[in-house]
Amino acid sequence: MTVLKLPTSTIPGKRQSHTERTAQEPRSPGLHSVVVSRIKPVNATVKLFQLSIPNRQTLHFLPGKWVDLFIPPFTSKPGGFTITSTPDEAKPPSSRSEDGCIELAIQRSPTNPPAAWLWRDESQILGREIRVRPGGSFVWPPPRSSIDVAAIQHVVFVAGGVGINPLISMLMHLSGLHARQRPPKITFLYGTRMPDRQDSATVDDEVLSGAAEILFLDRLIQAKGIFDSSSTLFSPRLHLTHVESGRALPALPEGFDVLQKRIFKDDLTSALGPSDTERRNTVAYVCGPPAMTDEFVQILAGAEGMDSKRVLCEKWW
After folding, report:
1. Spatial CB neighbours of 213, under 8 Å, sequence gap ≥ 6
2. Which neighbouring-strand residues pair with 39?
3. Please, which residues bridge with residue 134 across strands?
4. What is the pTM of this model?
5. How many CB atoms lie within 10 A of CB 163?
6. Are 52 and 222 a contacting pair, CB within 8 Å?
């Protein structure tokens, strides 16, 4: 079982920095200059930041990696944010004179200096240079030293809240591969809060707004369309919590399950598939808050037919 442990500090009352928590994780050499080129609010607490890679350079990373992010004047400790785009998007398009880019989904966090800097008014940060360095080991493909990647028949992704960030990069990367290059079966469990309704919205607008404000729900729908047109069996399941009384659930495409409950043990074991034979060729990825991740990893690793080496996880908060 591959676990990125982000322990609390041994000093009472002090929380460890991103650098301290990930000190043992692999990192790419050197820093890369990128430019804040686009900002898209998703909801009241998360924004997507597009960072262009200037001079048609390429930033190399595997799906699932995060970056150390340094803000001007580049003298303070970096923040840690997961890359939510795919490696292909970091390559400059061959047919156009545009630069490649990476994307980060960043929560509002006034006490986190890099996040607070990025959450300032757009006019203050668009076009500004920041510096990044990819790192981490929670990636696709899984480590070949312990897993026969070619034998994988089923991958199960389990996301809790913004734990979807590395998993959406992996999923969209897989969707861009030829069907023969990816597992024939993919299951995606996503547990998240229903966004608060807007005071000024109409009833119909609330339904649409709620769906639009669920982080990366649009990409899960996009991936389903891609997989449905190929031989890949894709089963996405959205678990919504904190749904206000009388609030309608998002209307999603056929085959996209929406449940008004958190993810429980039966949901996890069901996602693995019914047969021991199938589970022997299954890999599970889990990302979310520490307590949720610990609970889910224990359930998945202990399921009949599973091997703890085939349950990979990352804890992030």
Report:
1. 42, 43, 195
2. 49
3. 67
4. 0.91
5. 26
6. no
